[in-house]
Amino acid sequence: MTKYSIENNFAGVMVVPVFEGKGLSVQAKELDKKLNGLLSEMCISDNFESKKMQMSFSRTQNKDVPAVLLVGLGKDTDFDIRSLKQVVGACVIGMQGKKIGNFSLVLSNELIKKFGAKKLGLELAVAVETASYAFDEHKSEADARVQKLEKLSVVGKFSASEKTNLQKGIAEGEVIGHSVNYTRHLGNTPPSIMTPSLLAKEAQKLAKENNAIKVKVLSRPEIKKLNMGCLLGVSQGSVEEPKFIIVEYLGGGSSQKPVVLVGKGITFDSGGLGIKPGNYMNDMKFDMLGAGTVLGVIKAVASLKLKKNVIGLIPSCENMPSGSSYRPDDILTAHNGKTVEIIHTDAEGRLILADALAYAVKYKPREVIDFATLTGACMVALGNERSGLFGNDESIIKNLEDKSKEVGEQLWHLPVGEEYTEAIKSEVADVKNLAGVGGPGYGGASTAAAFLQFFTDYPWAHIDLSCSHYDGKGKPWIRHGANGFGIQTLVEYLR
Questions:
Q1: For the segment 303-356, what is each residue's pLDDT rounded down to a tens digit?
Q2: Residues 6 or more apart in contact with residue 138 via CB below 8 angstroms
Q3: Which parts are annotated binding residues?
Q4: Domain 189-494 belongs to what topology?
Q5: Do domains 3-180 and 189-494 have the same CATH topology?
Q6: Tell me, what's the pLDDT at 181?
Q7: Where are the chain's structural domains?
Q8: Known catalytic residue at 276
Q9: Dist CA 463 CA 473 (whole Å)
Q10: Whole-number mean pLDDT of the chain?
């Protein structure tokens, strides 16, 4: 756990942000004077132009300030919340790489003025928490693990109200950051460990930690009683039992209609009988990040004690090949009696979501929002820095877009409509689970969304998590693996 403090004196390793073309801030000039002009010298000798995320590190001869890191913010006019989180995250990871677990960040009056003290404190803490997280518990050598960030001091000349609001923002940001990392940890856990049963146990742990959360876990016999033929069909090729996980947070009182969140919980996706090529099967442990997102949002909402009613519905199973696997040409019957022709067994996520979306009707929801690592087509369209947004209610779409911008996440509105709805119609069932508009697979993200929409009759939005994890070494501001996309957007949406 990182400890935070707010200080007005320079002590320890100092991180000094600088806007491009503006030179050192008032606070940085004060530190520069204490260091006998070292910062000014670094700007000249290192050709430091304050480009975004440009860094210059130097040890000092000052016992109070043993080292400094200059970091560029880029142009003030281009600097937004997303940029702030990237820069702060990159500084944290950079310091951890130097085995520095305790440092101070100089906050200028310009940054306070630009974002407001509370917002700045919140986003700062989210960036720090998410950057400092590393999934390294399976490394056998302690020296190979990432340096823990023990303390971050925020240094500046703050008024009493600014200090109070910074503290409030940091406290909220810690909660959100911890929830994001909770989801990331679920996603990063190897699939031999993160089975549907373990995912259910993790949900039950949330209820034990916070008595405002109630959890109910349904196993195969109860799922059969609910006639969830799609979830049962996808799961039948695996030795792991499917689970239908219901998570309730009722903070808004009995008269308030709930927001229902639905998350895809495929804990490993081999493709089933339509098995994936080997190189496409890597990272399929992340196919449960829709479920992880739902749990992370509810964890944050409950910890912040928001006066909202939020229900989480998580269908979870593995999609595996075996003699008992569901097949192409099978017809499955969903919870609401609608039938689905199976074209391809690797289009399984939409099937298990169909049962959950149909089940959501019982809550008479204000709206339903689903999260799923649903289609490669969405990643082809958008890359892995944005996620696709679909829906049948423009006010929900607009609100989600606005909130995502406020927190530095990126949603992109993609279409549903008549051509996609027509494409999924089946000759032998109500709908089919794979279709294209104008050619096989064309418009794959939108036809998948149209399939989900077929099982809704309430205000609804769908987030296709094309931005859900990073390969390789990750980004300068966040390490590889699950990234927790969407949690902060939903927390702000639900406030």
A1: 999 999 999 999 999 999 999 999 999 999 999 999 999 999 999 999 999 999
A2: 190
A3: 264, 269, 287, 346, 348
A4: Aminopeptidase (3.40.630)
A5: no
A6: 98
A7: 3-180, 189-494
A8: yes
A9: 25
A10: 96
Contacts of residue 409, defined as CB under 8 A and 6 or more positions apart, other chains included, come to: 82, 387, 467, 485, 486, 488, 489
Tokens (6 digits) for 41: 């010298």
pLDDT of the residue at 278: 86
pLDDT tens for each residue of 143-177: 889 999 999 999 999 999 999 999 999 999 999 99
Q: Is-catalytic flag, 479? A: no
252: DSSP letter: S
Cβ density class 84-109: b for 16+ within 10 Å, e for less: bbbbbbbbbbbbbeeebbebbbbbbe
**85, 118, 350, 386: which is the annotated catalytic residue?**
350
Binding residue positions for Mn(2+): 264, 269, 287, 346, 348
> What pLDDT sits at residue 374?
98
The DSSP-derived string for 92-124 is: HHHHHHTT--EEEEEPPHHHHHHH-HHHHHHHH
185-213: pLDDT as tens digits: 999 999 999 999 999 999 999 999 999 99
Catalytic residue among 201, 214, 216, 276: 276
The CA-CA-CA angle for residues 7, 182, 146, to 5°, reads 65
Residue 347 phi/psi, 5-degree rounding, is -105, 55
pLDDT at position 401 is 98
Identify the CATH homologous superfamily for domain 3-180: Leucine Aminopeptidase, subunit E, domain 1 (3.40.220.10)
pTM: 0.96
**Residue 357 · residue 381 · CB < 8 Å:** no
